[in-house]
Amino acid sequence: MEFRVVNETGQRWAAAPWLQIFKATERSQQAWSKTSVALIFITPKRMQGLNRRYHKKAKTTDVLSFAAAKQNPRDGSGDIFVCPAFLARRYPKMSLRSLLIHRFIHGLLHLLGFEHRTESAARKMENLTQVLIRTIKPYGRHHAQRNKK
């Protein structure tokens, strides 16, 4: 298992237990004994470029995941690009740390083959995300309590 965090934004973002989150997701899905995952924080301009190039959408988004191996795209290896500035602008009243953690887990689930093309699949993916969030302490309890209000 290899995991790394890269910050290409030039800004300091909320610290979080990225490796702990990665391992919790790995355990929950019984996967990733030989995986390599990179969490990469990028600027809105770079995110827009990636979204345009790979999804033919000329807009910035919050997270994009790219599987490393086309022959086995569900093995969990790949890159997760997250745009903190986009999240901060889109959700100004929410904790940026909570948003970053949520989107990181979302990206990890995509690397495992989860999709949200249907309402049912989206609910399943979000439910699993919330279960994983609650397993991460102290983050999980704080986030769960905030969302109940």
Summarize the structure.
The chain is an alpha/beta fold. It is built from six helices and four strands; from the N terminus they run βαβαββαααα.
Describe, in plain words, how this protein is organized in 3D.
Helices cover 50% and strands 15% of the residues. It has 149 residues and is an alpha/beta fold. The chain has a single domain, classed as Collagenase (Catalytic Domain) (3-Layer(aba) Sandwich). Helix 4 (96-111) packs across helix 5. The longest helix has 17 residues, at 119-135. Residues 140-149 have low confidence and may be disordered.
Number of strands: 4
State the CATH superfamily name: Metalloproteases ("zincins"), catalytic domain
Indicate the radius of gyration in whole angstroms.
15 Å
How large is the count of helical segments? 6
Q: Assign a percent range to the helix content.
A: 40-55%
Shape: globular
For the sheet with most strands, the description reads: 4 strands, mixed
Instruction: Give the CATH level 1 class.
Output: Alpha Beta
Low-confidence stretches: 140-149
